[in-house]
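Good morning,

Attaching, inline, the backbone tokens for the sequence recovery test we're adding to the shared suite. The designed sequence is right after.
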């Protein structure tokens, strides 16, 4: 039996290993168009490779996938973060967990992951052909004929398509009967022209609520102020869940920031008034009222026309109302986005309803399997995108080799 995996990235490579491990007698071949294997794994997580996330409950895990949430539930019962941690451990690679749940190799180097995969492929006898680009596939009676740019067509009984977000992979999927959800970027930061906060670049705050004005999209989490706008986990997560919505609006929208989501406007007002009564003769700038980074707090109260030298008892009710508004519902006009250097993915790909997730086989073309980013699945940042590659790759590989 000849199982041909198209794409030597995270999903394709893991699928090939799973296939060969399950069925050592099968010919498992990876065709990779570039000279390099696993190139995204190498640059991932700033060169450290955020392999997965310490979230071991499938029901919670799926919530990190703006697209693929429903479909990944059953696959995660078959192969989840605990399984990939174990898979690496049994091959001598230990993963460590960071405070926020992200998991990396203890070496802090993606080379550890790549070396482990290459060693495993050699041990199992997976055949690898680099600089071999698939141009098209033709379904024939007993399998598939592949055009790889040589005189002779290449034959496969089973195909695993793991071409990531490359347009040719989607073209080939279409030629085999599939529909493609229009690709748009996910995981990006927000650009704010003439950004009033650029002087605070580098300051972050742990818990804010960010909402896209006049939409259902909102997230709570850490926010980072940059020279050109907002970034940080809350923004990246918002960009992922609203990826399509924002693309349709050409990245022209308003974001509403609630700097203190744990307090209502009334609670904040009470806090400020209490501080005013307790410290009537102190300067406003010397009274700790809320826990926000000092420079950020100063910037925010200055927006409400307050100044640090003002005496607490001179602060009017009107000024307090304005300050509460700035703290709870300040709006910024966003125009454009910036790619997140640490991790980015594409939303869109092969339509999920056309794939059987128990096997990752196409419902439209027998013996064709999919895994990884070629599908209309993407996760938020934190190791979830690789987990999708491992899980769908493992299932596709084993199903194809059975
Ligand atoms: C900078 C960056 C950092 C990232 N960091 C992380 C991280 O730390 N953690 C995380 O979870 N996710 C991370 N991601 C996302 C993650 O890399 C992807 O989700 C993941 O690589 C998808 O795996 P894949 O195998 O589906 O696709 P890919 O890794 O893109 O692999 C597809 C492969 O198919 C090959 N190919 C395409 N077309 C053909 C063809 N016609 N013939 C032959 N070969 C072909 C390509 O050359 C490529 O090697 C990061 C992404 C980027 C861009």
């Amino acid at each position: 039996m000849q199982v041909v995996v198209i794409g030597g990235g995270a999903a394709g490579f893991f699928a090939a290993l799973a296939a060969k491990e399950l069925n050592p007698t099968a010919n498992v071949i990876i065709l990779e168009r570039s000279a390099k294997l696993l190139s995204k794994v190498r640059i991932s997580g700033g060169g450290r490779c955020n392999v997965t996330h310490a979230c071991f409950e499938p029901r919670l895990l799926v919530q990190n996938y703006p697209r693929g949430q429903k479909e990944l539930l059953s696959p995660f019962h078959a192969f989840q973060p605990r399984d990939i941690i174990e898979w690496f451990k049994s091959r001598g690679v230990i993963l460590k967990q960071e405070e926020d749940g992200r998991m990396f190799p203890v070496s802090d180097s993606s080379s550890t992951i790549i070396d482990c995969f290459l060693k495993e492929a050699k041990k199992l006898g997976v055949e690898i052909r680099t600089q071999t680009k698939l141009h098209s596939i033709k379904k024939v009676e007993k399998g598939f004929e592949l055009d790889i740019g040589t005189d002779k067509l290449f034959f496969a009984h089973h195909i695993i398509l793991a071409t990531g977000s490359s347009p040719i992979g989607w073209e080939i999927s279409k030629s085999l009967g599939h529909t493609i959800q229009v690709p748009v970027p996910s995981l990006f930061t927000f650009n704010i022209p003439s950004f009033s906060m650029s002087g605070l670049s580098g300051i972050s705050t742990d818990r804010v609520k960010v909402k896209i004005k006049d939409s259902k999209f909102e997230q709570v989490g850490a926010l980072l102020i940059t020279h050109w706008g907002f970034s940080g986990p809350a923004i990246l997560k918002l960009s992922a869940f609203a990826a399509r919505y924002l693309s349709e609006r050409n990245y022209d929208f308003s974001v509403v920031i609630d700097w203190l989501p744990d307090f209502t406007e009334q609670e904040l007002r009470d806090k400020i008034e209490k501080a005013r009564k307790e410290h009537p003769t102190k300067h406003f700038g010397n009274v700790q009222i809320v826990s926000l980074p000092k420079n950020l707090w100063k910037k925010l109260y200055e927006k409400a026309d307050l100044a640090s030298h003002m005496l607490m008892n001179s602060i009017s009710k009107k000024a307090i109302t304005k300050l509460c508004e700035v703290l709870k519902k300040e709006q910024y006009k966003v125009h454009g986005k910036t790619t997140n250097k640490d991790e980015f993915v594409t939303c869109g790909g092969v339509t999920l309803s056309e794939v059987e997730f128990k096997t990752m086989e196409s419902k439209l073309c027998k013996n064709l399997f999919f895994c990884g980013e070629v599908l209309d699945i993407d996760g938020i940042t934190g190791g979830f995108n690789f987990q999708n590659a491992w899980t769908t790759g493992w299932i596709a590989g084993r199903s194809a080799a059975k």
